[in-house]
Specification:
The protein is of the alpha/beta class and 399 residues long. Helix content is 47%, strand content 14%. It has two domains: 238 residues, Aldehyde Dehydrogenase, Chain A, domain 1 (3-Layer(aba) Sandwich); 90 residues, Aldehyde Dehydrogenase, Chain A, domain 2 (3-Layer(aba) Sandwich). Strands 9-8-7-10-11 form a five-stranded parallel sheet, with helices on both faces. Bound molecules: adenosine-5'-diphosphate. This is Succinate-semialdehyde dehydrogenase, mitochondrial.
């Protein structure tokens, strides 16, 4: 009854060569855009938004051995910044700072914590252009989408500011007449927050906002591909009055940082968004010190179009579901199943719509699809395309 196959003729599947040319711009247009990215980076640097050191105990800190890693613009391959490449020792110091800060932050009244979070929200919104530019620079998504992520990311801080005042307990009817049972909610302690590159701001605020609202303190480990937005957000947290040590950021050697977070008895919770493979490692590693874990792992998202669907609505919905962030979100449709009666119409309309998506540097006018995050991602998409073709998929259009 259902469609013969998922439609797999997505424009990005045909783009490795286009993406490769964006990485090494040869056209006048791409050179101009690359210059635009450079001047954005220079402006962000002079306004203090381009931080390159880790953030430990409220201080900007180099890696102890001086090592750095490159953060590259995925649209051009150019280096945006060299950031501190940290490991176990820096992480242990960040944990110690967070542990110290926990003793006071957990005792601050809920109303005060709420005010600090609200101020952080206000500052993020006030700087949404700069933060959006940083996201486009290091992650590649189109600027409009990046600024949209800032609003989305900030909303988690706003929500947490509101909820900070409503962390109520419970009184439970007792089975015995001379007992009273009640539940008092208390912060667990230091939280290790490990985040991916696809939402450089929102994945951080979604973890850090609730943790701070409860009175916990955090050590953030952003993806080494996109640490710049995390560092700028940390700077704003300090300006908002969130005390030094309550928010720390370390980045660099992911397994070393992860192992230090897992080994520490002072870290009481790990919150992670990323691959299932790494999630499993973290879950197993957290058992040694019986930490709480919250894991948001890979998604599996079919998009189903029925015969009676409104074609326009189905088209718009499928485009958004498939191509948001160039298909790099955990809820992006990874197969599209179309009922037979509407198959031809939908396939043609979808193919045309995809053809019209403008692919390019996220700073380019009218660009709807930025680059994939790196070469490995391009190769992964290529292999999906080859796999589909080898299993009988019919390609409706190329390039
Ligand atoms: P993706 O495939 O989406 O990049 P990953 O799970 O590899 O997902 O990465 C998500 C986050 O997990 C990133 O911040 C990455 O640096 C981090 N990470 C990867 N390996 C480890 C590890 N062994 N311990 C802790 N964090 C890790």
């Amino acid at each position: 009854m259902f469609a013969r196959m998922a439609i797999r003729t997505f424009k990005l599947f045909q783009k490795p060569s286009h993406l490769a040319s964006m990485r090494h711009p040869t056209t006048v247009l791409s050179r101009q855009i690359s210059m635009e990215a450079e001047s954005v980076a220079a402006r962000l640097n002079s306004s203090g938004f381009l931080r390159t050191q880790g953030f430990i105990g409220g201080k900007w800190t180099d890696a102890y051995d001086g090592k750095t890693i490159k953060v590259c613009n995925p649209a051009s391959g150019e280096v945006i910044a060299n950031v501190s490449c940290m490991g176990g020792r820096e992480t242990n110091d960040a944990i110690a700072s967070a542990y110290d800060a926990f003793s006071s932050w957990s005792k601050v009244t809920a109303a005060e914590r709420s005010k600090c979070l609200r101020k952080w929200y206000d500052l993020i919104i006030a700087h949404k252009e700069e933060l959006g530019q940083l996201i486009t620079l290091e992650q590649g998504k189109p600027l409009k989408e990046a600024v949209g992520e800032v609003a989305y990311g900030a909303s988690f801080i706003e929500f947490s500011a509101e909820e900070a005042k409503r962390i109520y307990g419970d009184i439970i009817p007792s089975a015995l007449p001379d007992r009273r049972l009640f539940v008092l909610k208390q912060p667990v302690g230091v939280v290790g927050a490990i985040t991916p590159w696809n939402f450089p701001l929102a994945m951080i605020t979604r973890k850090v906002g609730p943790a701070l609202a409860c009175g916990c303190t955090v050590v953030i480990k952003p993806s080494e591909l996109t640490p710049l937005t995390a560092l700028a957000a940390a700077e704003l947290s300090l300006q908002a009055g969130i005390p030094p040590g309550a928010v720390n950021v370390v980045m660099g050697n992911a397994p070393e940082i992860g192992d230090a977070l897992l080994a520490s008895p002072q870290v009481r919770k790990i919150t992670f968004t990323g691959s299932t493979a790494v999630g499993k490692k973290l879950m197993a590693g957290a058992a040694g010190t019986v930490k709480k874990v919250s894991l948001e792992l890979g998604g599996n998202a079919p998009c189903i179009i029925f015969d009676d669907a409104d074609l326009d609505v189905a088209l718009k919905g499928t485009l958004a579901a498939k191509f948001r962030n160039s298909g790099q979100t955990c809820v992006c449709a990874n197969r599209i199943i179309v009922q037979e009666g509407i198959y031809e119409k939908f396939a043609n309309a979808f193919s045309n719509a995809v053809q019209n998506l403008q692919v390019g540097d996220g700073f380019g006018e009218g660009v709807a699809q930025g680059p994939l995050i790196n070469e490995a991602a391009v190769q992964k998409v290529e292999s999906f395309l080859q796999d589909a073709i080898s299993k009988g998929a019919k390609v409706l259009q190329w390039g």
